[in-house]
Amino acid sequence: MSLTFTKPSVALGLPRMGAGNERHTDTNAVLSAGVMIAYKARAGYPTPQMKDKINRAAVQARNIVRIANDALARVVMLRGAESVLFTATMARHYSLTAGNLGGTLAVPFLKDNIVDKPFSLKALTDIDRRWVLNRIREDMLSISFHLNTGVYLIDIDDGVRDVDNGQRKPLNQIDNDGTVGYVQRRTHTAASSICGFRNGEIHISFAEFLDYSLNSCACTIIHEACHKYLSFRGDVYGFYANYPPPLTDPRSSPAGTASSLRNCDSLAWTAVSLATGAVRMDNNDSDDDEQCPGNAI
Ligand SMILES: [Zn+2]
Questions:
Q1: Is the pTM of this model over 0.70?
Q2: CB within 10 Å: which end of the chain, N or C, has fewer?
Q3: How many CB atoms lie within 10 A of CB 183?
Q4: Using alpha carbons only, how large is the chain's radius of gyration in Å?
């Protein structure tokens, strides 16, 4: 039995953070410590099966990023040797294959890319493999912090939802068919990039979650958390032929340019891979993004 109440923003009539003041969802439920959902209440909805699946997926997502963060810290902070899985994961999801300097031939991104490069004081400031791994670690740590502080998930409610980003719209103008998750992007200014409310909340399809495996649901939550908390715009999905996007310097390439270091699926599948002990992803022409195997961890 979960604690259910009218959404405080609805009860108090508070304005929304984004454009428009219409709301689709009106009810919150706390599913377990640190897991809260929002939905439009009606008889028999959401089902107990939906609540159970969402709760388990949220717990799985925060466990995955916590374990992945530990794996990254072990290599980057404690300078432990990379495991075979670790090296393979970085190659698959970031094109961080040993020797690949990224960038372009004329202007390489990295000074060198050597697995387990021996320690030297001089190399501390190098833009090298360790620099990239540390960047991934910082992003993973941020996601782990946010998800382990609390997971808030709003129902997409495809077919019923008639409000999109605060504006009322006819049902047939909201095309979320098959969309399992999204976050409204609200980054407009440099100042907003330091604000926790810079982007909308994580929306997931309660209905679709029933059809997805536990790890695929967790991967979706982590992917959307990358949009929300890291303002990643990269949506080169694992099942695209050009996945992963190129290994380029995320500091100098324009915000909209594809870079594996700003690609949601790269970080999300890296987290799932490191935490579950095998390189995981959705393959081209496969529905593995919906049925990634694995039990609760
Ligand atoms: Zn996305």
A1: yes
A2: N
A3: 21
A4: 20
